[in-house]
Amino acid sequence: MQFDFFPSKTLTIYLAKLFVVRVLAVLLMLVLVLQALDLLSQSSKVLAYEGNGQAELLRYIGYRMPQLVARFLPYSVLLATIVTLMTLNQNSEVVAMKAAGLSAHQVLAPLLLAAMVVSAVSFAFNERIVTRASAALSAWQAVDYGPVPEESGVRTSVYLRDGDNILAARTLSGEGDAMRMAGVEWFRRDAEGRVVETISAPRATYASPGWLFEEPLRFDVASAQQVPIDPVLIAKGVSPRQAELGKIDPESMSITQLGAAIDELSDSGRRTAELESKWWHKLAGPLSALLMPLLGAIAAFGLARSGQLFMRAIIAMLLGFSYFVVDNAALAMGNFGAYPPFVAAWAPFLLFLLIGETVLVRTEE
């Protein structure tokens, strides 16, 4: 019986290479299929803007593909784990390794090591590429796939409180007194919270204080009439700093940027539970790849000739997909404030780590 956690160097490299190749193959297959389906559903919207063509479709693919890679990498690791372990089992390689004195944990150790590397790469990929692609795609979609303002820090779908009233903008660009809004609307509400008047404009600039609506249209709810009016100054209580903090998109921000935004919102007395859950999940999410070899381990053991190999693969798949369901549910509960942010992000990971380890020990060790 060997007491080292890893088997021999040759066997470790063999198993790790086998596993990584299958992860990449499954990921490539999933991303290509899903990208094709996504492009079919979005191409009409991209081409609807006058002047857009093949270059814009390729640009959309460039923005969307990193999101698909990040989202489906854990699923790819799960499927690759099941395929790899089933193949080893069918070829009696697992039987040979156990006959040589390796424990179930030693058989899985190379896969866990490779999955740890995949988790680290996934975290770096999310921080350096996915966040930038998400921010660029959101800004592009906000202008209906037209020209995006060149200013840095473009935000989309911004909603701000102006006392009892609401100031909304399709995009927000620029910084400080040079900040500008596009597709802007102001909703005036009465004491009972009902909207009684709206003023919309294609553009608004900060007038220190207030926002100057250019070419505005006024809609009176009572008379149901819309009329053009002169440029008007609105929302004097909304500052550029409030506008910057009015729309935080965790998917478009790195973990350091999101942490700084959370601190600023917390100092201003704003609720940050949802953002804190997303912050913790930026760490816990990539680690889901580390769980997959453990949850899929049941497919590696048991005699292939017993006829139970297919059932074991189904159980492994159910365990893996159950983790993603519970993880999404916990994150949603954290967003609503039902769970503390740390618990919402890490509880599913720790729970299924214990489940996977328990199943492995009880069945194989």
Q: Could you outline the blueprint of secondary structure elements for this entry?
A:
Elements: H1 9-48, H2 54-90, H3 93-99, H4 104-142, E1 155-162, E2 165-173, E3 180-189, E4 195-206, E5 211-214, E6 217-220, E7 225-228, E8 232-234, H5 240-245, H6 255-267, H7 273-284, H8 288-295, H9 309-335, H10 341-364
Antiparallel strand pairs: 1-2, 2-3, 3-4, 4-5, 4-6, 5-8, 6-7
Helix pairs in contact: 1-2, 1-4, 2-4, 2-8, 2-9, 4-8, 6-7, 7-10, 8-10, 9-10
Describe the structure.
InterPro entries: LptG, LptG/LptF_permease. Keywords: Cell membrane, Membrane, Transmembrane, Transmembrane helix. It is found in: Cell membrane. The protein is α+β, with helices and mostly antiparallel strands and 365 residues long. The chain folds into two domains: 9-144 and 277-364, no CATH class; 164-236, no CATH class. It has ten helices and eight strands. The protein has helices at residues 9-48, 54-90, 93-99, 104-142, 240-245, 255-267, 273-284, 288-295, 309-335, 341-364, and strands spanning 155-162, 165-173, 180-189, 195-206, 211-214, 217-220, 225-228, 232-234. Strands 1, 2, 3, 4, 5, 6, 7 and 8 form an eight-stranded antiparallel beta sheet that branches. A hairpin with a 5-residue loop joins strand 3 (180-189) and strand 4. It is elongated. The protein starts with 8 loop residues before the first helix and ends with a helix.
